[in-house]
Design brief:
The chain is α/β, with parallel strands linked by helices. It is built from eleven helices and twelve strands. Helix content is 40%, strand content 18%.
């Protein structure tokens, strides 16, 4: 048994069946990571109440683990509900860099390959808001130099690691002069340490237009922005990869990480063995790499790519007829075969 431990939150809606598929793929590849199942999210909260979707017991498990995996969870959209599971864990462990690759497969009309890097602990997601009257409210967009510098540095390091040469920094600095000014200053200062990497600034409204109109211009580059802007940009970009069900992600801090699919819990499809498992499986593969099993991660990525490119065992959102379990089994078989080579 590995000495690495990962807390596993199966989540809400389709979360448990998706996470079970990810676990089955890891098991088919003989992963030695110790997986510790946890119960957290809105379904748990509706039964138990309290001011958090995460119990004290689960916090103890998270804190004693080397990383965690979060399946899709539901965040109830009313003022009395707790803060989302993802935001709470990001802020607790200072997981300041949310990384979402946008990479298409052979079956896509467009061939894209770029990475979205999102500041994940500040901005409007700090949840600081209050009512000023019965008919008005204010939300605070918190931005700090420290928060910006650390995610910007991570983006430059990732650009260098991937062999890319350009970062697109996304702001609305003509309107948000103070908050985006702090972010832009962090970009300018950090670039001095990476003189071979070019930087181009895009305003958020223009960026979303360009992602629809001409996304290939961003190939082999990093898209970098603050919390809400990059959440929007990465979701927009995911429309080109066949399905949001293909988009995986990792949330990285200095000593901890959380991995999760980029999509929601899709409760209307719960228990139907229908939804796309790719984002969950590849997020699990990333977790395996983070915890020292890069050979397993590489095999799962190769196996998944092969299954999607062959287009025989893919789910409805990718134009196929395979069930969740059918696509999972195909990926597991191919991944295990790559490890035997």
């Amino acid at each position: 048994m590995s000495n690495k431990k990962a807390a596993i939150i199966k989540g809400d809606g389709t979360g448990p069946e998706l996470v079970n598929s990810m676990i089955s793929v890891l098991e088919s590849c003989n992963s030695n990571i110790e997986l510790i199942n946890c119960d957290a999210g809105s379904e748990w909260w509706e039964k138990n109440g309290g001011n958090s979707y995460i119990s004290d017991e689960v916090w103890n498990i998270l804190e004693s683990s080397d990383a965690c995996f979060k399946g899709p969870t539901t965040t109830v959209p009313n003022p009395n509900a707790p803060r989302s599971v993802a935001v709470t864990i990001r802020q607790k462990f200072e997981l300041y860099a949310n990384i979402r690759p946008i990479k298409t497969y052979n079956t896509s009309k467009l061939q894209l390959d770029f990475i979205c890097v999102r500041e994940a602990t500040e901005g409007l997601y700090t949840g600081i808001e209050f009512k000023t009257s019965d008919d008005s409210a204010i939300a605070v967009r918190k931005t700090t130099g420290k928060g910006c510098r650390r995610v910007v540095k991570k983006a430059f390091e990732l650009t260098q690691q991937k062999g890319f040469t350009k970062i697109f920094a996304i702001t609305k600095r003509n309107i948000l002069k103070e908050t985006d000014g702090i972010f832009w200053n962090a970009v300018v200062e950090t670039q001095k340490m990476f003189p071979k990497i070019d930087v181009e600034e895009y305003y958020i409204d223009n960026m979303t237009q360009q992602l629809v109109k001409n996304p290939e211009r961003f190939n082999n580059s990093i898209l970098l922005s603050t919390n809400l802007f990059m959440d929007i940009v990465s979701e927009c970009a995911s429309g080109h990869v066949g399905s949001i069900g293909n988009v995986y992600s990792g949330n990285y801090g200095d000593s901890y990480a959380m991995f999760e699919p980029a999509h929601g819990s899709a409760p209307k499809y719960s228990g139907q063995n229908k939804v796309n498992p790719v984002a969950t499986i590849l997020s699990g593969a990333w977790m395996a790499e983070y915890l020292g099993e890069k050979h397993i991660s590489d095999a799962i990525f190769k196996g998944t790519e092969q299954v999607i490119n062959e287009n025989k065992f893919v789910t409805y959102d990718l134009g196929g007829t395979a069930s969740l379990s059918g696509m999972t089994n195909a990926i597991a078989e191919r991944s295990a075969a790559f490890l035997r080579k």
